C-alpha cells in the first residue's frame, strides 16, 4: 500500500502521473527483492500494489483473493498521534473482516508455544473463541484463555465470574481452565498476564468500532495490538 496523495493520483498535470509510475515501479522492485528468499521457494505468492490507504482497501483485497488472514508489521503509535490518527495496524484491525496478525519485532524463529486468548466469556464471543482454539491447535500451542477483572462498573465477584465462565465453556463444549487476572484496565491486564505466562501470541476479539463511538470508547483489541511487544491476533466479532 503506497498511500499516495489523492491529488497526485487525480491530477491532470503530466508531472503527477509520471511520478506515480516511478513510485509504482520502485514498489514492484522492492517487492521483487523482498520476496526473493530461500524459505519462500515453492510458496504461491501474488504481489499486489495499491495506491490508496491501507485500511480502506484491505477488505477488497481480502475478498478478491479469498484470504483467511491478514499479517502486517507495525511500529505502533503513541501520544497525540495515537489519539487522533492511530497506527495503520490499528486501522486495519478496526476495518478488517478476517483475523489480523500484528507483529512488532523481527522474529526469525517465530514459534507459538503459548497462546493467550482474552475475552469477556459472553455468548457473543463463542465463535471467535472456537476460531482461536483451532488456531492454537494448528500451532500445536498451549491455549491459555484468560478473563481480566477490573474495578468499576465491570467488576465481578469471584462467584459471578466463575458462573459466567462455566456457562460459556458449557456452550463452547470446551473442557478448559480459564485464568482470572486482576488489573486496573483490560489492556494492562492482558499484557501483564501474557508476560507472566511467557506468551508467544495474544488473541483478542475486537468490535471494530468506528466514528465517534471509537473516539470516545476506543477498542481494546486495537490498543493491545498497538502496545504489545509480542504478536497479537485479533478476531472481528
Present the secondary structure layout:
Blueprint: H1 6-10, H2 15-34, H3 54-64, E1 70-73, H4 79-84, H5 88-95, E2 100-103, E3 114-118, H6 126-139, E4 142-149, H7 158-172, E5 179-182, H8 186-197, E6 201-206, H9 211-217, H10 220-227, E7 232-236
Parallel strand pairs: 1-2, 3-4, 3-6, 4-5, 6-7
Antiparallel strand pairs: 2-7
Pfam family, one: Usp
Domain UspA: 16-104, 114-236
Family: Belongs to the universal stress protein A family.
Features:
237 residues, alpha/beta, Rossmann fold, 7-stranded mixed beta sheet, 7 strands, 45% helix, 15% strand, Universal_stress_UspA, Universal stress protein, Rossmann-like_a/b/a_fold, UspA
The CATH C-level class name of the largest domain: Alpha Beta
- Based on secondary structure, the structural category is alpha/beta
CATH homology-level superfamily of the largest domain: HUPs
- CATH fold descriptor of the largest domain: Rossmann fold
Mean pLDDT over all positions: 81
- With helices defined by DSSP (H or I, 4 residues minimum), what is the helix count? 10
Label the CATH architecture of the largest domain.
3-Layer(aba) Sandwich
- Percent strand equals 15-25%
Strand arrangement, largest sheet? 1-2-7-6-3-4-5
Strand element count: 7
Domain count, please report it. Answer: 2
Ends distance: 25 Å
Low-confidence runs of at least 5 consecutive residues:
79-86, 211-218
Order of helices and strands: HHHEHHEEHEHEHEHHE
Rg, rounded, reads 20 Å
Shape: elongated
Helix content: 40-55%
Q: Main beta sheet: strand number and arrangement?
A: 7 strands, mixed
Amino acid at each position: 500500500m503506497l498511500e499516495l496523495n489523492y491529488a497526485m493520483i487525480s491530477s491532470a498535470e503530466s508531472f503527477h502521473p509520471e511520478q506515480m509510475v516511478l513510485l509504482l515501479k520502485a514498489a514492484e522492485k522492492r517487492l521483487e527483492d523482498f520476496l526473493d528468499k530461500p524459505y519462500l521457494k515453492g510458496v504461491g505468492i501474488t504481489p499486489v500494489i495499491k495506491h490508496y490507504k491501507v485500511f480502506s482497501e484491505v477488505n477488497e483485497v481480502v475478498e478478491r483473493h479469498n484470504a483467511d488472514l491478514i499479517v502486517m508489521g507495525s511500529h505502533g503509535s503513541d501520544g497525540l498521534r495515537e489519539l487522533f490518527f492511530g497506527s495503520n495496524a490499528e486501522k486495519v484491525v478496526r476495518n478488517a473482516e478476517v483475523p489480523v496478525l500484528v507483529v512488532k519485532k523481527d522474529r526469525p524463529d517465530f514459534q507459538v508455544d503459548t497462546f493467550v486468548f482474552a475475552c469477556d466469556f459472553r455468548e457473543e464471543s463463542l465463535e471467535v473463541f472456537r476460531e482461536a482454539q483451532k488456531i492454537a491447535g494448528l500451532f500445536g500451542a498451549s491455549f491459555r484463555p484468560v478473563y481480566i477483572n477490573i474495578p468499576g462498573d465491570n467488576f465481578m465477584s469471584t462467584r459471578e465470574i466463575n458462573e459466567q465462565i462455566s456457562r460459556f465453556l458449557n456452550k463452547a463444549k470446551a473442557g478448559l481452565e480459564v485464568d482470572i487476572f486482576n488489573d486496573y484496565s483490560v489492556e494492562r491486564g492482558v499484557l501483564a498476564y501474557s508476560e507472566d505466562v511467557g506468551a508467544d501470541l495474544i488473541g483478542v476479539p475486537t468490535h471494530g468500532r468506528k466514528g465517534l463511538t471509537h473516539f470516545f470508547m476506543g477498542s481494546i483489541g486495537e490498543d493491545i495490538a498497538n502496545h504489545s511487544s509480542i504478536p497479537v491476533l485479533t478476531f472481528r466479532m
